[in-house]
Amino acid sequence: MHARDFAAESLLIEEEPYYQPVGSEIALFEAAYASQIPVLLKGPTGCGKTRFVEYMAWRLKRPLITVSCHDDLTASDLVGRYLITSNETVWLDGPLARAVRCGGICYLDEIVEARKDTTVVIHPLADDRRCLPIEKRGEVLKAPKEFVLVISYNPGYQSVLKELKQSTRQRFVAIEFGYPEAELEKTILMREAGIDARTAEKLIKLAAMTRSLKGNGLDEGASTRLLVHAGKLIARGVEPRAACRGAIAQALSDEHDMLVAVDELISTLF
Amino acid sequence: MHARDFAAESLLIEEEPYYQPVGSEIALFEAAYASQIPVLLKGPTGCGKTRFVEYMAWRLKRPLITVSCHDDLTASDLVGRYLITSNETVWLDGPLARAVRCGGICYLDEIVEARKDTTVVIHPLADDRRCLPIEKRGEVLKAPKEFVLVISYNPGYQSVLKELKQSTRQRFVAIEFGYPEAELEKTILMREAGIDARTAEKLIKLAAMTRSLKGNGLDEGASTRLLVHAGKLIARGVEPRAACRGAIAQALSDEHDMLVAVDELISTLF
Amino acid sequence: MHARDFAAESLLIEEEPYYQPVGSEIALFEAAYASQIPVLLKGPTGCGKTRFVEYMAWRLKRPLITVSCHDDLTASDLVGRYLITSNETVWLDGPLARAVRCGGICYLDEIVEARKDTTVVIHPLADDRRCLPIEKRGEVLKAPKEFVLVISYNPGYQSVLKELKQSTRQRFVAIEFGYPEAELEKTILMREAGIDARTAEKLIKLAAMTRSLKGNGLDEGASTRLLVHAGKLIARGVEPRAACRGAIAQALSDEHDMLVAVDELISTLF
Amino acid sequence: MHARDFAAESLLIEEEPYYQPVGSEIALFEAAYASQIPVLLKGPTGCGKTRFVEYMAWRLKRPLITVSCHDDLTASDLVGRYLITSNETVWLDGPLARAVRCGGICYLDEIVEARKDTTVVIHPLADDRRCLPIEKRGEVLKAPKEFVLVISYNPGYQSVLKELKQSTRQRFVAIEFGYPEAELEKTILMREAGIDARTAEKLIKLAAMTRSLKGNGLDEGASTRLLVHAGKLIARGVEPRAACRGAIAQALSDEHDMLVAVDELISTLF
Amino acid sequence: MHARDFAAESLLIEEEPYYQPVGSEIALFEAAYASQIPVLLKGPTGCGKTRFVEYMAWRLKRPLITVSCHDDLTASDLVGRYLITSNETVWLDGPLARAVRCGGICYLDEIVEARKDTTVVIHPLADDRRCLPIEKRGEVLKAPKEFVLVISYNPGYQSVLKELKQSTRQRFVAIEFGYPEAELEKTILMREAGIDARTAEKLIKLAAMTRSLKGNGLDEGASTRLLVHAGKLIARGVEPRAACRGAIAQALSDEHDMLVAVDELISTLF
Amino acid sequence: MHARDFAAESLLIEEEPYYQPVGSEIALFEAAYASQIPVLLKGPTGCGKTRFVEYMAWRLKRPLITVSCHDDLTASDLVGRYLITSNETVWLDGPLARAVRCGGICYLDEIVEARKDTTVVIHPLADDRRCLPIEKRGEVLKAPKEFVLVISYNPGYQSVLKELKQSTRQRFVAIEFGYPEAELEKTILMREAGIDARTAEKLIKLAAMTRSLKGNGLDEGASTRLLVHAGKLIARGVEPRAACRGAIAQALSDEHDMLVAVDELISTLF
């Protein structure tokens, strides 16, 4: 275990992350970056949004600061706050201010989970003003041209209470993510889980079946990540059916009938 | 990246912002300003309300202080608060108090998003008392005649919970904003995105189609800002259909059927 | 811009405010004041409640302390709180305690907007105990006979959640306010907006039409204040129809059909 | 204006409060006091519950501490809290702890308005344990036999959300209050408002009419307090009908039809 | 009045509390205590749960710490917190930690009223881990074998929102309490209220009638405690019917019809 | 009673916990541990999830840190916070940070009870980033390969409001727990409660009956833990029927009809 501090250089992704492009997402991201328009990534969990951002950070050689958004994330958590210590009062930049200062990529993951003040605080950064007012310091940070704001969310989860307001989403260029094509997914599985082509194909067939059940008893189909999990367990010697039950079926659902149905799918494949 | 402090002179807009008048909004704003009546801007996102305020600030040569309102914005955030440091207790003016002191324009963007105490705190500033009581300091700030309060909101979003109370709105002169006429919008697009007239016309046709879908599957039509985004991507070499999908279709909606429909509109145009 | 501190003498209204009596409200207020019974003002926004209180403060030569109530106004905001500075802990009287100490008029505007603890904290001041317990200081302030509590609210807004409890309202003598008679309103308009009699009459006719729409598409009719706004814009050279649209129609409603209807009314008059 | 501190002797009621007994309430209170059982007063606003407690405090020669309960009243507000000053940390007894220490009467007015923790904190004081645990000081106060807890509420207001739990109410002996008999009320009115017998009789007739409207358009009928208000205004020279409208009709209701009806009642009497 | 500190010895019940066993509750409690299984007491208000715990504390010679649970009781209130004074930061054990340290009985009265974090904080103490993690001190308290956790609740009050979770209740041995048999209740009444056998019998008949009305207009029947209250008032000379009305009828209900009905029951008995 | 501090060595389970494997759960856990995939345990209360984690901690020789999740558990409670003492400001690692630093097992029991920010804070630890950003210190903890995150929940309790999001659950390999087979449960009962085979068999029959009532009047059937409780009471000499009523029937339900039914089951067995 070792601590990494937040200095800009340490936030650079040094090694090229393994990323398989699905369509024109790289070109679109680069054009938005060059035009200084922020980017919105849409798509289900486990389909590679986070990996894509890491890849683009490596490609553009920009520091990456990731924030997992949640119900209690406030504007101060993003912008910064004063910290009272016994000797002095110190200002501590939040991740958004840090990213602006160092001209990095600020990635707000699952933005719709955050409180509304968080989505509003990014507005002046997300239009052509490109500035971050830090009220508490009486300071306005002007973003350098290298700074880019990236947000993501999963449209499948959006409820009325947690939807992205038009005044927010109309500030972004959007890129949609889905599950990779079968051939591409097979390549990913073999490389990431260390399994053979046949096992990978079976897992992908299983995934396709669960994905077709989305909306018919399953909230989501099996993501590529789940297939990697099952593959890794199999590679460690776990019996394939047990691996698929633990890493895929049980991870997807708690419904008894659905679990029986997925178990049958598993038995027909392995 | 450089920090700009809040001293009044530094809040002046030095360069004339690009603004194309739509109707008599400039005359109306100037008469209200001269009569010391506050101004309310109404209209959808991305139609130029913020740009208009920046333009008027430049024209009237007044410092501009903008506040993006949100659920957690309190009266103290606007008025000011005591800051306890290790050596002393310092009063820090909020943006509203700062604007009053320097006789500037205080622009509260999306006022209905703020908590109710925020809308009440502006009442004494918004009638002929024109003063801001700062309870915590036992002080009453009297606004100079140059000070003007500007608020904005999007009537399309107003829910019962978040509507502007009559006792608030009846304190303002209201100016309504909409999308610019086609000719005007074309001029804006060509200048801001750097595209040719033909591409601009196609984008405007696409916008008109989405705007007619408002209330029939779309919450909002494409704003001028979205057209500028698409234009910029096209100018950077992105294939026009991909640019329109990312900057317009995906930015407007997550609904599969609606996305297919907008995609067809795009294909008939490009 | 100059700061006025809260010393009692500085809260006196030095100049007679322009106030046109509507009925026996002055006699009723003076009898309640002499009997040490608190006063409740009822009526729609913009009909002169605040001006009336300022007038009575001037007439009775009592300091006036006004508090705009809101959702987050707590009992401590009214009564006072300890302020911790680096050197010492200082007690800061709230506006209610200040008004009691200096025998002034404490005017709580839109009382129903305040939190319930606020309405309860005034109970001992509003019956024959006439005292304000300051729990945090272990002190009970006894109100001098000059002190009077005045509260206001708009019955048109009262929801079930925000109604004045019987145990509160039965402590007050109530005075109802409405729109002034046509002749009186004309005098007010000509004096406050600096317009001629004919324009004033037209504005009053327009107001009467909107007031008859109250409950039929409008939450409120145009108040006298709105007419003054329109008049001032006209006096500044704004075209009368544009002035009425901005200062009256758009200030009253966002509904498209209603705006068209009010616009037609405007066109028949100007 | 003079401050009265909370030392036990200063909380004694020195002068006999004017109180007209309605039934056996004095005997019942005295027996409960002698048996060390707490007392619950039930009844509508303005019928003399507070005056009765003041009278009993005078009669039993016990200090009286009154707390108006509200939504934000916490257990700490009642029991006490530490106060951090710059030099030291001081414990400040809340009103309940003060009353226990000095063997006084603690009167919690409108108890159902308080938060639930408040009603629970009185449980150990309200059964035969008769003690108040002060968790924050690690101290248990044992109540002396002179201490008595009195609570009140208005059954007419009780909603499902704000009812007194059985585990609370079954700890008290209950005394119900209503409006006084006509003869008694006449005596009270003449003495408190300084009016003649005929005016008093008319006011009582008016009160009886409004009381019969309770539940048929009025939430409450006119309390004795309202009659005293009207009487005082009349004694000050206000025209009787105007006095009744301001002090009774407008204080009871905002409904136009109801106000017209009560106005007619007033006109038939005066 | 004298303060008792929380040192373990001072929390011992020195005198045998008057307790009449109803069934095998003493044996069951002792076996659970010896097996180090926590105990859950169920039953309506006023039937002796608190008295039973005091009796067992005396019998087992263990210090007793009682906490009345409520909506705002947090885990920190139970476990402890740091207290910042001007000179140092002191840790203050909460009642639960105190009880664990001194091997006492911790009695959480009306546990379902507490916030959910409170019920979860007792889980590690309520299974065979028998430990209390104090996160804030980085300390795990191991309970000595003499420590026992007792909780109580009234099943009659349980709403969906406030029910004991299975993961909580399945950690306890449960003992149910009801009203005592008539003979036993008579003995209790005569001893506690100091009344003769005939009066006691009449009160018990009255109680039986009200208990049969539970669910038919009454939330609860009259508890033994209410009978003791009525008996004490009668012993002090209050007329029996007035005593029963104040101590029983009015304490049970506010409904006019129900009060008339109970009054008739009272009149047939006394 | 003795305090154990949180140093890594002291969190090791020194003695082998008594654990009877039910299926392939040990192999699955070990493969997930070796693959650095986090583990999700599903199953009803009292079926041994906590014991299993303790067993795996002993087997893998890793320190175990357990957190009982609840409504008020925040991200700061897990990650850590600054503690202001009078002399200095100290950072206090939360249990999650502690577990990461010492390469231990962090077990979040009943994760769905926690606030949403808690489930999000574990995301970067639960995918291949395996890091814990500590925003307040500007530090990113990288988890050593020995660290493993384990969470548990009871699918039977999941409500719409408290379900595990797909973006969370798809990060884990899931292991499902149920009640042990009869033979195994008998072995457990005899060993843990110290009862003979016949009594254990009767208890297991009783459990089976209650388990078949799940969803038909019972929220849950009797867990193994409840049988151990009843067995222990019987071993202490409590009459078997009374033991079963207190430890099983009353612990499962408050419904009168259900209690009568379970009592009859008990009577037919003992």
From TrEMBL, chains A, B, C, D, E, F:
List, in alphabetical order, the Gene Ontology terms for molecular function in this entry: ATP binding; ATP hydrolysis activity
Q: Is Nucleotide-binding given among the entry's keywords?
A: yes
Gene3D superfamilies recorded for this chain?
A: P-loop containing nucleotide triphosphate hydrolases
Give the species this sequence originates from. Answer: Pelomicrobium methylotrophicum
Q: Which UniProt keywords apply?
A: ATP-binding, Nucleotide-binding
Q: Which Pfam families match?
A: AAA_5, CbbQ_C
Domain CbbQ/NirQ/NorQ C-terminal stretches: 185-268
Annotated ATPase dynein-related AAA domain residues: 38-172
What family is it from? Belongs to the CbbQ/NirQ/NorQ/GpvN family.
**Protein name stated in the entry:** CbbQ/NirQ/NorQ/GpvN family protein
What's the superkingdom here? Answer: Bacteria
> Which InterPro entries does the entry mention?
ATPase_dyneun-rel_AAA (IPR011704), CbbQ/NirQ/NorQ/GpvN (IPR050764), CbbQ_C (IPR013615), P-loop_NTPase (IPR027417)
